[in-house]
């Protein structure tokens, strides 16, 4: 049975919470061994004892490559559950019940050899490991020559401020490499995105001088203007061949939603005249004869300067047109106006002059 893997794992999980390491094996004079190659200044380091296959009487940790009494840091005796300090104890060390050496708030001076002696009662084993405590480099800074761009038009150059030589780049939190849209400089410190896209929302660079301890910059936000891609007409009535057929007095809602960054400007034209409406949706509460005719909704992105429009006509409904939608509409109006719904015959669905159906003032004239 290989006991090394699970114990190694256990500590790797702790690393994320508390501090450390890479797994590895150093020289051992018995079967036991020590793993811990890297420590980080200011964080906890753990020298993990491996391959202890029987109950121990004592774990004794020493500074240096041998296990002399002058070098002792701290020891732990499981039978009596007692700890003892040695001359090399600095106040930051302890031995766990599993025999591992824990060093709190590691300093660069903690770098060096460590030797453990394990007393099994019928014999002892020793192992030596080397701890390398490093300074964790600070998070890299990132800057770009602009924070705004127009989709497919603008270019952005971002620079990673670091002395690291291994640098990774992230766009919208996904790692990127040079491709047909972007280039990473040979020294890896600069990313240029040609023809910025709408999903290029954040830029980050990451360095990893110490394996397992990548340092990623704060996300740098890009505001990319785009769209409208298309304008979709949505109305309360069905539009057939560009014609919306509605009854006089009925309510007509028409809307031209569009996706755009920043939000687009909306204009509406009726019979070639601009209406004083600047919303995506227009509601004609009670359709009048003057409100018949040609309509055009215009959607404009002031930044991308893309303009799109949709056109249709409103005509008086003639029998048989758009039955389904009008029936629904009418039932809705009835419930709102409190008109008794007596039967479903087509004639009765047209109380054209019922004042109760005028839910508001005509919008246009
Ligand atoms: C543990 O000991 C076994 C043999 O006793 C050996 O094969 C294995 O490599 C050792 N593992 C470690 C991590 O030292
Ligand atoms: C312990 O190691 C030191 C060097 O680190 C050496 O000078 C000394 O002789 C060693 N002692 C024993 C008992 O091996
Ligand atoms: C090390 O730090 C932990 C948590 O911060 C604390 O519980 C423990 O007592 C410390 N050990 C030593 C020897 O300072
Ligand atoms: C080590 O930790 C134990 C608790 O796990 C504590 O009782 C003991 O005093 C500590 N020893 C040292 C040397 O700090
Ligand atoms: C590290 O060791 C040097 C000399 O070897 C000493 O001057 C310094 O104070 C030590 N630093 C710490 C934090 O122990
Ligand atoms: C650690 O021990 C090895 C031999 O086990 C020796 O070659 C090396 O110089 C020692 N390192 C330090 C910093 O004492
Ligand atoms: C000590 O005893 C265990 C069995 O209890 C045995 O596996 C081991 O080899 C012994 N060690 C020595 C050094 O005799
Ligand atoms: C940013 O840098 C890129 C690449 O050098 C360049 O094409 C672009 O014009 C620059 N943008 C601004 C706003 O300076
Ligand atoms: C890069 O290294 C130089 C000299 O070692 C140092 O002055 C500078 O602050 C470092 N830059 C960064 C971003 O770490
Ligand atoms: C718009 O044109 C339609 C048909 O051409 C007409 O019925 C309607 O009265 C006109 N309305 C306005 C306000 O021009």
Automatic annotation (TrEMBL):
<dbReference type="InterPro" id="IPR003598">
    <property type="entry name" value="Ig_sub2"/>
</dbReference>
<protein>
    <recommendedName>
        <fullName>Ig-like domain-containing protein</fullName>
    </recommendedName>
</protein>
<keyword id="KW-0325">Glycoprotein</keyword>
<feature type="signal peptide">
    <location>
        <begin position="1"/>
        <end position="30"/>
    </location>
</feature>
<dbReference type="InterPro" id="IPR007110">
    <property type="entry name" value="Ig-like_dom"/>
</dbReference>
<dbReference type="InterPro" id="IPR036179">
    <property type="entry name" value="Ig-like_dom_sf"/>
</dbReference>
<keyword id="KW-0393">Immunoglobulin domain</keyword>
<feature type="region of interest" description="Disordered">
    <location>
        <begin position="336"/>
        <end position="365"/>
    </location>
</feature>
<dbReference type="Pfam" id="PF13895">
    <property type="entry name" value="Ig_2"/>
</dbReference>
<dbReference type="InterPro" id="IPR003599">
    <property type="entry name" value="Ig_sub"/>
</dbReference>
<dbReference type="InterPro" id="IPR052598">
    <property type="entry name" value="IgSF_CEA-related"/>
</dbReference>
<dbReference type="InterPro" id="IPR013783">
    <property type="entry name" value="Ig-like_fold"/>
</dbReference>
<keyword id="KW-0732">Signal</keyword>
<feature type="domain" description="Ig-like">
    <location>
        <begin position="228"/>
        <end position="315"/>
    </location>
</feature>
<keyword id="KW-1015">Disulfide bond</keyword>
């Amino acid at each position: 049975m290989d006991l090394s893997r699970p114990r190694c794992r256990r500590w790797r999980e702790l690393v994320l919470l508390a501090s450390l390491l890479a797994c590895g094996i150093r020289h051992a004079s018995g079967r036991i061994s020590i793993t811990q190659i890297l420590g980080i200044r200011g964080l906890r380091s753990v020298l993990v004892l491996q391959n202890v296959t029987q109950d121990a009487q004592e774990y004794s940790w020493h500074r240096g490559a041998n296990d002399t009494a002058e070098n002792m840091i701290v020891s732990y005796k499981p039978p009596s559950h007692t700890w003892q300090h040695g001359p090399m104890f600095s106040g930051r060390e302890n031995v766990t019940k599993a025999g591992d050496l824990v060093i709190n708030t590691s300093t660069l001076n903690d770098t060096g050899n460590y030797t453990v002696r394990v007393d099994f009662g019928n014999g002892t084993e020793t192992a030596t490991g080397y701890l390398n405590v490093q300074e964790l480099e600070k998070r890299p800074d990132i800057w770009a020559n602009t924070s705004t761009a127009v989709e497919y038009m603008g270019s952005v150059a971002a620079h990673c401020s670091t002395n690291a030589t291994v640098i990774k780049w992230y766009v919208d939190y996904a790692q990127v490499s040079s491709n047909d849209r972007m280039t990473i400089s040979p020294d890896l410190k600069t990313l240029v995105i040609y023809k910025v896209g709408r999903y290029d929302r954040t830029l980050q660079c990451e360095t990893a001088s110490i394996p397992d301890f990548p340092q990623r910059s704060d996300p740098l936000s890009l505001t990319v203007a785009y769209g409208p891609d298309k304008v979709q007409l949505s109305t309360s009535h069905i539009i057939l061949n560009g014609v919306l057929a509605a009854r006089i007095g009925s309510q007509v809602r028409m809307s031209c939603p569009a996706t755009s960054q920043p939000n687009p400007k909306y204009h509406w034209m009726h019979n070639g005249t601009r209406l004083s409406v600047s919303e995506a949706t227009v509601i004609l509460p009670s359709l009048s004869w003057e409100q018949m005719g040609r309509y055009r909704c215009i959607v404009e992105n002031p930044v991308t300067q893309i303009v799109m429009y949709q056109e249709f006509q409103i005509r008086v409904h003639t029998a048989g047109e758009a039955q389904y939608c009008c029936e629904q509409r009418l039932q809705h109006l009835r419930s709102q106006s409190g008109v008794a719904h007596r039967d479903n015959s087509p004639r009765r669905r047209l109380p054209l002059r019922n004042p109760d159906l005028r839910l508001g003032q005509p919008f246009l004239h």
